[in-house]
Amino acid sequence: MRRVAHYAAELALVSPYTPMGRVIAIANQKGGVGKTTTAINLAASFAAAEVNTLLVDCDPQSNTTSGLGFAKDPGRISSYHMIMGAASAEEALLTTELEQLWLIPSHKNLVGANLELVDAEGREFRLREALAPLRDRFQFIVLDCPPALDLLTLNALVAADAVLIPMQGEYFALEGISELLDTIDRIRQGLNPGLGIEAVVLTMFDDRTNLAQQVRAELQNFFGEKLCATTVPRNIRLAEAPSYGKPALVYDPRSKGAESYIRLAKEIIERQALGTGLRTSDLGPQPAAVSDQAVAPAAGGIAEGAEAPAGQQGAAVEEIPAADEMDKTA
Fold first, then answer.
1. What is the CATH number of the domain that holds 301?
2. 3-state secondary structure of 15
3. Residue 223 covered by a domain
4. 330 in a structural domain
C-alpha cells in the first residue's frame, strides 16, 4: 500500500475543495469501450486523493458492483430501489476496500426500471433527487451508465454536472458520437441546463497503429482541449483486477493501467480547479467519421455507403506484433 500512499500524496496536491460534490456520468451508448473499467478506476483514484468519493452502478449488468468485490445479493438495497423510491441513497451505501470510496450497487431488476418508469411522474429526475442529500458529503460522485441511451442513462445525465466519454481508438467508436452529443445537447435544453462535457478519454489505446493515431487526430480537431492528454492502454492488470474484486490501483498499483487512471484523475481534478467547461455548441467541426453528410437522419449513425474518414482511405494500419512478441509487462 506504500505505492498507493505515494499516489494519494501526489493527487492531494491538486485536489480542490468544493462544498458540494461534482457528479460525473461515464457514458457512451457503444458497448465495450471501457465505461465500467473507467468508472471503477477513476473513482478509486479520486478516493486515493483522500476525498470522499461515491460510485453509483446504474447498469443492470452490475459489473461495477462485482468489480469491487460484491457478490450478487437479491436482498441488498441497490440503485434500483433508490431510483424507484423504495429506499434512500443513504440506505444503499456500501463501504469498500478503499477508505474513502463508497458504492451504491446495482441489481438486475434495473432492466425493468426502463418500463416501470415510462408512466412515472418526474421519471427523468429520479436519480438526481435521490442523490441530492449526498452531494454535500462527497466531493466526487461517479455514475456508471449502461451502454444505451435509455431512461437509466437519461436519469444519470440529468443528475450529472458533466459527462466523461470513454472511446476506443477505432473507426466504429466514432460512429455513435453524434447521437450521444445530440442527446447531451437536448438534455441541456430541456432538463439539465448545466450539463457539460467533462472530457473525452481514449481507452484500450494502442499508439503503434496508424488507425489509433488518426482517430485521436480527428477527436483532437473536434473536442480540442476536452480530449484528455492521458490515454488508457490495453493492460493485463486492468483486465485481471475485476476478477479479484479490486480496482487496479489496489490490485497492482505499479501497473500501466493503474498509473494511467491516476494520471486521468489528476488531469480531471486540475480541469475542475481551472473551471474549464464545455458545451456542445463550443465544439469544432465534427470528425470526418461523423460528419453531417455521413450521418443518417433517422438513426443518427453512419449512412450506408458513407466514405471512410478523411485521411483514412487507403491508409495502411501498422500490424500489431504477434502475441509472443508483444510487451506483456504490466
1. 3.40.50.300
2. coil
3. yes
4. no
- If we measure between CA atoms, which residue out of 15, 23, 57, 22 comes closest to residue 40? 57
Tell me if the pTM is above 0.90: no
Write out the three cell numbers for 54: 461515491
What span, in angstroms and rounded, lies between the C-alpha atoms of 50 and 15? 9
C-alpha cell at 96: 469498500
Whether 196 is covered by a domain: the verdict is yes
Rounded Cα distance between 189 and 186, Å, is 5
pLDDT tens digits along 11-65? 544 444 444 689 999 999 888 899 999 999 999 999 998 999 999 999 999 999 9
Most confident of the ranges 206-215, 291-300, 313-322: 206-215
Count up the domains in the chain and report the number: 1
- Separation between Cα atoms, residue 118 and residue 195, nearest integer Å: 23
Residue whose C-alpha cell is 490490485 = 251
* pLDDT surpasses 60 at 221: yes
C-alpha grid cell, residue 201: 478519454
